[in-house]
């Protein structure tokens, strides 16, 4: 099994949709850890606040299969197939890390969000602070320590029932 980290986000009925995402991820593999759910303002556009979290998931799927399965889940729960970046969304599922794979093309791994956004980095610190991010020689904690904490994150209580 490959250990992967999936970023989960929603700003349309976010409590309901992050629960749906967790339920769906349980169908794809073994959910081993789930971070705190954080509320964050959208980045790059004006809209409702997001609920964001990260899930550690062990899977037997190839990277391309996992990407297609995550996309199908997004569409199943109301995301438009041609949805643009920087807009409201029911569900956003992003592969942040997939084992030790480094990829420069779709999907880019490690995902840039791990270096740019508090909503991806802080949940990763919770889940695996000593994880060395492939191709960086830095741990998640080191990335967080060097990060500009300009984005405000507020923990929210969401009963994820699992």
TrEMBL record:
Q: Which GO terms describe its molecular function?
A: 2-amino-4-hydroxy-6-hydroxymethyldihydropteridine diphosphokinase activity; ATP binding; kinase activity
Q: Which GO terms describe its biological process?
A: folic acid biosynthetic process; tetrahydrofolate biosynthetic process
- Specify whether Nucleotide-binding is a keyword of the entry: yes
Q: Which InterPro entries match?
A: Hppk, Hppk_sf
Q: Which CDD domains match?
A: HPPK
- 7,8-dihydro-6-hydroxymethylpterin-pyrophosphokinase domain residues: 5-129
Q: What is its EC number?
A: 2.7.6.3
Q: Name one Pfam family in it.
A: HPPK
> What's its top-level EC category?
transferase
Pathway(s) served:
Cofactor biosynthesis; tetrahydrofolate biosynthesis; 2-amino-4-hydroxy-6-hydroxymethyl-7,8-dihydropteridine diphosphate from 7,8-dihydroneopterin triphosphate: step 4/4
Task: Return the protein name.
Answer: 2-amino-4-hydroxy-6-hydroxymethyldihydropteridine diphosphokinase
Organism, scientific name: Aliivibrio sifiae
Q: Does the keyword Lyase apply?
A: no
Cross-referenced Gene3D superfamilies, in alphabetical order? 7,8-Dihydro-6-hydroxymethylpterin-pyrophosphokinase HPPK
Keywords carried by this UniProt record: ATP-binding, Folate biosynthesis, Kinase, Nucleotide-binding, Transferase
């Amino acid at each position: 099994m490959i250990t992967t980290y999936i970023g989960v986000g929603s700003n349309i009925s976010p409590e309901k949709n992050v629960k749906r995402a967790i339920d769906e991820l349980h169908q794809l593999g073994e959910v081993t850890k789930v971070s705190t759910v954080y509320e964050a303002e959208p980045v790059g556009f004006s809209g409702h606040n997001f609920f964001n979290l990260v899930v550690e998931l062990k899977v037997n799927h190839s990277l391309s299969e996992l990407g297609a399965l995550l996309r199908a889940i997004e569409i199943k729960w109301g995301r438009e197939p041609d949805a643009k970046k920087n807009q409201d969304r029911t569900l956003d599922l992003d592969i942040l890390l997939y084992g030790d794979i480094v990829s420069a093309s779709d999907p880019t791994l490690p995902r840039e969000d791990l270096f740019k956004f508090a909503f991806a980095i802080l949940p990763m610190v919770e889940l695996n602070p000593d994880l060395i991010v492939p191709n960086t020689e830095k741990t998640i904690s080191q990335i967080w320590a060097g990060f500009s904490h300009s984005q405000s994150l507020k923990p929210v209580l969401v009963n994820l029932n699992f």
